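User: Predict the structure for this protein chain, please.
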Amino acid sequence: MRILSILLIVSVVCCSISEARAGGVVDRVKARGFVRCGSVKRPGLASAEGKGRWTGLEVDVCRAVAAAVLDSPERIEYHQYETPQDFDAVRNQQDDIYFLTGSEIHKQNLAGKVLPGPAVFIESDKVMVAAGSAAQHVADLTGDSICFLKGSSGQRSLEAYFDSIHKDFLRRGFSEDGEMVDAYIVQNCHAIAGEITTLAATRLNRGVNRLSSRILPESLADFPVMAMTGTGDAQWSSIVAWTVHTLVSAERMQTRWYAGGAGAMPITAPELGLDKQWQRRILTAVGNYGDIFERNLGTGSALKIERGLNANHFVGGLLLSPFLE
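Assistant: Here is the predicted structure, written as structure tokens:
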């Protein structure tokens, strides 16, 4: 009987610990005083400025969650994943929100560690050429030299594109990003392939020749960057997901027929531990998704990337979040 009693006590304690871990992210964040977020470095999405301050679309999403939970968008800590060891912050659930792509999840074997949330950005592999190039489309580069990073998604999508049109190009593969950019700037290759955010940042580097560049319209591949959370806390996952959905749905304008802004999809859910003003608070802090995009990637930024697939569904883009239909 004594052994059974001990086993029963141990079982209850273990269950209690498990439940605390499963539902404890909000409490952990509040006790710590800030939200921890992380991702790989992508221009316009997440990059460090002076004095350790991070900026970018993903960073603003992190700030929105902090505004919802901690009443302040400034109470965040951001991390960059560069090496396989950096992803231990995901494996060990040290960070609270992770912005990842499918390839990053697969390569780091994280599928059992993360819960995929809503897309915060649709990344695209594209091709960039000099402004004076005769090429108007990727197919016009048949037979020309194109730079790419070996083993990257840019290389794979470039190979797949030319294979699909039964044409070929001159391959210039590089192992280092800096070497590739240098080769392109001096026009040792006619074009350069990569993610549109990286190409837009490269376009700003005109080099000694003052090279002007433009990105060709075709997407070689499109893939989502998702806001992810750990698998053990549904409450926290819901808060993060509803925050992203609020930012996207709030782009809807108020009309006589349907609600817009914060009222496009009002979320009153005391079960999540959020007060009634949380949605208006995050929109005041960071704006809606359109505001965030324009500030970090669009016309209000140095990158000058068009909304394209990242436009809201009601103007033909891919971003679709729940709203009061």
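The two ends are 60 Å apart (CA to CA).
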